[in-house]
Amino acid sequence: MKKLSVLFAAVIMVVSVSMAKAQKFATVDVMGVLNAMPEKKKADADIKTFLDTKQSEIKKKADAGQAKLKQYTDEAPKKTADENKAREAELQKLQEEIGQMQEKAGKDLEAKKDVVFGPIEKKLNDAIEKVAKANGYEFIMDANSPAFVYRAGADATAAVKKELGIN
After folding, report:
1. 28: which of 64, 87, 114, 150 lies 20 to 30 Å off by Cα?
2. pLDDT, position 14
3. How far apart are alpha carbons 20 and 14 in whole angstroms?
4. Hey, what's the signal peptide range on this chain (predicted)?
5. What are phi and psi of 148, to 5 degrees?
6. How far is residue 35 from each of residues 52, 115, 164, measured CA to CA in Å?
7. Which structural domain, as residue segments, surrounds residue 91?
8. Roughly what angle, to the nearest 10 degrees, separates helices 81-135 and 157-164?
9. What is the pLDDT of residues 131-156, one digit of tens each?
10. Is 47 among the domain residues?
11. Residues 133 and 24: beta-carbon distance below 8 Å
């Protein structure tokens, strides 16, 4: 019985080793490839412009609120309690509007990123898939993944860049 279990363990080890050797692994520097893509550079510039515009709008509204706050603070001693209370409510409403603008800008930015980067990610994934099929890779993993404990095997970064027509 003991010989049978040792023999079984040996067979399992041989099968496991032969299966592991049959599989081809490769890595790709996903961020390196993405950063080399002209489409990504243009998308980054578009996102920056979009973000700058949104921040400018929010800053303009915040600056107007600061000016109004200063004016109301300076005039407060000369106004009645009811007028000061109304002005305080107005400033509170303005602050809420700025918060809503910031929240909307964040949502708009995420939506813009999805629209702009979606086709780029698809193009990269299609190129990786094509390289994997052409070279017989069963697995291609991101070379920058923190989950890697040991990395060996082919690096498909150059092949993916070539497939995309970038250096």
Report:
1. 114
2. 47
3. 10
4. 1-20
5. -70, 125
6. 21, 18, 12
7. 23-164
8. 100
9. 988 988 888 888 887 665 445 677 88
10. yes
11. no
User: For the chain, what is the domain count?
Assistant: 1
Residue type, 85: K
pLDDT per position as a tens digit, 97-110:
999 999 999 999 99
Indicate whether 17 belongs to any domain.
Answer: no
Q: Tokens standing for 129? A: 């898939």
Tokens 């363990």, located at residue: 9
Which amino acid, one-letter code, is at 107? K
Which pair of tokens denotes residue 134?
Answer: 């052409």
Q: Establish if 9 belongs to a structural domain.
A: no
Domain assignment present for residue 113? The answer is yes
Place of tokens 């000016």: 67
Structure tokens at 20: 């592991």
pLDDT of residue 122: 94
Alpha-carbon distance 132 to 17, whole Å?
22
